[in-house]
Structure formats: structure tokens, C-alpha cells
Amino acid sequence: MLIEQRTYQLKPGSLHEFLRIYEGEGLKLQSEALGNLIAYFKPETGDVNRVIHIWGFDSYEDRAERRAALSSNLKWREFLSKAGHLVTAQHVELLTGASFSPIQ
């Protein structure tokens, strides 16, 4: 399994607004396109102006196809026009499990 961890840095004070918009409009669209949402986090300590989400894919090719489908979805683009301005930076990591990891 290929794990994608995305961290979105948000404008200070916009976490609740971002989560409200995402849960109401973005979550369904993203879940339908990407498929395997493993976790979605908001920090309670440290830098609290961010969200971290983790997605699982069968392979690099599966990820590329699913992300392309999401990017071409007009409803997703509408969501981005509402929530995108709240994101100031993003960091993406693609991860694979070590031989002893519970997630392979």
C-alpha cells in the first residue's frame, strides 16, 4: 500500500471555517475520488493552524489516476474556490510501510 500524508497550513484562525467547508462539501468529493481515507487530524498542541490527512492507495499508478480524476472534477474545483484561500501552504509525503508495519 502507498500512503499519502498531506499537511495543509491554514491562515491563523481559519481552522474551524476550513473544516466546516471541507466536511460539508469537500469530504464527499475527495472520498469518492481517492477512496481510502485512513485518517484526518487537527492538532491540539503545537502549530494548531493546520490539518493532516492520510490516504491509502494500491500503487503510485492508482494514486495518479485517482488524483487526476479529482482534479478534473468541476465540483471539486468549486470547493477549492471556497476553501482554497484558507490554505497558505501544503506538504505532501508518499510513504511505504517498513517490513514490520501494521499497514503494508
UniProtKB/TrEMBL annotation:
Coiled coil: none annotated. InterPro entries: Dimeric_a/b-barrel (IPR011008), NIPSNAP (IPR012577), NipSnap_domain (IPR051557). It comes from the Bacteria. Residues 4-102 form the NIPSNAP domain. It holds the Pfam family NIPSNAP. Belongs to the NipSnap family. This is NIPSNAP domain-containing protein. It comes from Pseudomonas fluorescens.
